[in-house]
Amino acid sequence: MKNLLKNFFIFFIILLVVSGLFYSASDAEQPKDYVGIQKLVEEINGESVESVTVEGNLLRVKLKDGSGQKVKKENGESLSALLKNFSVAPDKLAKVNIEVKDESGLSFWASMLLPIALPLLLIGVFIYFMARQIQGANVRALMFGQSQAREVKQDQDKKKQITFKDVAGVKEAKEELKEVVEFLTSPKKFLELGANIPKGVLLVGAPGTGKTLLAKAVAGEAHVPFFHMSGSEFVEMFVGVGASRVRDLFKRAKKSAPCIVFIDEIDAVGRQRGSGLGGSHDEREQTLNQILVEMDGFEPNTNVIVIAATNRPDVLDPALLRPGRFDRRVVLDEPDINDRTEILKVHSQKKPLGKEVSLRRIAERTPGFSGADLANLLNEAAILSARNGKRLIEMPELFQSIEKVMLGPERKSRVLSDKEKKITAYHEAGHALVTHILPNTDPVQKISIISRGMAGGYTLKVPLEDKRMHSRQEFLEELSVLLGGYIAEREIFGDITTGATSDLRTATHLARRMITDYGMSRELGPRTFGSREELIFLGRELHEQRDYSEKIAERIDDEIMHYLNEAAERARQIIREHKPKLEKIVEALLKQEKLEKEEFEELVKA
Ligand code: ADP
Ligand code: ZN
User: Fold this and answer.
1) Is 435 annotated as a binding residue?
2) CB-based pocket (< 6 A), ligand 1
3) Which of 97, 169, 438, 598 is the most exposed place for a label (fewest CB within 10 A)?
């Protein structure tokens, strides 16, 4: 709106200047030899005029003495009538040679058209600016229904294409998707045998595991165009937009068949219907219906394959998963250590690595990292190396980047007071000591009291191998480790700080899950408590359904308390018993702020 006003103002100024120019231009046209009509009349009466030439409103007067004059007359009035009105004697007039010439073409047209055209032109310019303003204000009402899918045409340049080579790990997924590539490249083979080519593939995997990358690779392998749209992009403020975008997307896709349509985050539109709080006919539902209609409407030989991605297959509407729709499901696991090494290899191809860099060791230190995290790690390492003025990426930068990706950047600027530093040191030493003493915990990789991201300090533990399963004993020890910091503060200072908040929350959450989800309670027996049936309102989970009685709820609370107290007690014993070691760790931490695995083990060995 402010912009509009500004433009209007500018426009107004321009108008003023232009009209001013015109005014002065017509003014300037009054040279010295112009005379009034009165003068002309006198001259005619005095017989000193030889001839008068009429050009429109301009009278060129030639006097007998050879000089010339110009006279302007009123618009539209004829010269003879004018002169009569000024009472020129007819006999004197008869002696003047009067000649009427056409006005010169240009000035005639200019004088005729300018008064009409100029305002029109100005109004036109004004409207044009207004219209541009309104468009700029993003009221593209007419474009709403069109899909904003991004289309990736296959480059002629084969080198730039993303293919399966660029996707590391996920072997099973690649194997399954090779079939899709075949459907796209040689559909005949399948149609001749009467096979129905699948229309939809659902990629299931956590964020950053490479779903988008894999879909692109399929398009690259098959050398077909790739339409990319995210589920959340279908849904706008206005009802019906989503459905219309789906229609538009599929129309475009069918035109460029064979091709791949990739719908990211399908759960944004494909959640189970009827569970929304916004009535049964909400926008999401219509969008979903339209997707189903489009997929059902494919001719058997329409060679469009829809690949959808989600990390929540459990919330999807069953209608989406029926045969003929997204009936193929491809799961992308989190990368294991070999996959991680592979992914690191793929992403370090264009990065110069130092000679002693071992990607395997990086992979060892990064369990739980997704492909995207690993790509990010290498990028951070490259940036860090550049900032350190190195020409190659070396191990220290890589290690540092692991922590950065995990915990956020180091914040050396957040200066801890000596007291805070001491508390943090005891807190982290508490975690580390408990970890070291208990047998079923992951080894300590690093302790630091430099704050990082949200954490004041941190103790990094990394499992020796990738784990898919955890035992009750491991969890119990983990609880003690989590409470180790809190207990250390209490034992040493007799007081507690807010630094332990997130530890306590994590511990409580873990204890609850042990009891309600994993059946690991002593008394409550082998069952789960509470079902996470989702009520969806604005896409958030509001509610955990309670499927147990008030009495059981009390017992669950008791159990949680019991586990936590037990864990705290164990931590306290360890800290009391090994206090000299604790002090040693704290001393080292205060001195050098960070302890690596080897240094730590050296300290606590004895
Ligand atoms: P998703 O769609 O599953 O959230 P993306 O496909 O967008 O994840 O992955 C993000 C980035 O992470 C990719 O562009 C790629 O650089 C990297 N990445 C993820 N998985 C892999 C993998 N298996 N191999 C190579 N790079 C990967
Ligand atoms: Zn802690």
Assistant:
1) no
2) 167-170, 205, 207-213, 309, 343, 346, 371-372, 375
3) 598
Reported for 556-559, long-range contacts at CB under 8 A and 24+ positions apart, including other chains, are 556/512, 556/515, 556/516, 556/521, 556/524, 556/529, 559/511, 559/515, 559/521, 559/522, 559/523, 559/524
209 labelled binding-site residue: yes
Question: Is 233 in the active site?
Answer: no
Omega of the bond prior to 258 within 30 degrees of 0, cis?
Answer: yes
Q: What is the DSSP letter of 211?
A: H
For domain 2-106, say whether CATH 3.30.720.210 is its number: yes
As given in the structure block, the two tokens for residue 280 are 């049964």
Selecting among 43, 221, 428, 478, the annotated active-site residue is 428
**Cα–Cα distance measured from residue 77 to residue 91, given in angstroms and rounded to the nearest whole number:** 21
User: Which of the listed CATH numbers 1.25.40.10, 3.10.450.50, 3.90.1150.10, 3.40.50.300 matches domain 150-332?
Assistant: 3.40.50.300
CATH topology of domain 337-407: Helicase, Ruva Protein; domain 3 (1.10.8)
Q: Where are the domains of the chain?
A: 2-106, 150-332, 337-407, 418-603
CATH superfamily of 418-603: Peptidase M41 (1.20.58.760)
Q: Would you say the CATH fold of 150-332 matches that of 2-106?
A: no
Q: Which residues of the chain have pLDDT under 70?
A: 1-5, 7, 19-32, 76, 102-105, 134-149, 153-159, 236-239, 272-281, 300-301, 409-416, 452-456, 463-467, 531-545, 606
pLDDT in tens, 442-489: 888 888 887 766 566 777 777 666 667 889 999 999 999 999 999 999
Tokens of 578: 């090994």
Element (H, E) at 422: helix 418-437
Q: Which of 172, 202, 213 to mutate to test the pocket of ligand 1 (most atoms within 8 A of CB)?
A: 213
pLDDT tens-digit readout, 110-167: 777 888 888 889 899 888 888 777 665 554 555 555 666 677 766 555 567 788 888 8
